[in-house]
Amino acid sequence: MAEIEIERKKKPVWPWILLVILLVIIGWVVYEYMKDTNQIGVLAPTAPPGMMALASAKPHYGAIV
Description:
mainly alpha; 3 helices
């Protein structure tokens, strides 16, 4: 009986390269979104100093005067 050589086809590499590039882009977008979301609290306006004084000037009920 004669031997028949079977050559296996090589799988292309480019789908894996595209997958890695896609994952890197998705990771970068998520990072940028999270970075911008975390800065919202830092950039939020604060109460003016006069408002803080008024809030602390409330009478303390139950205190002996």
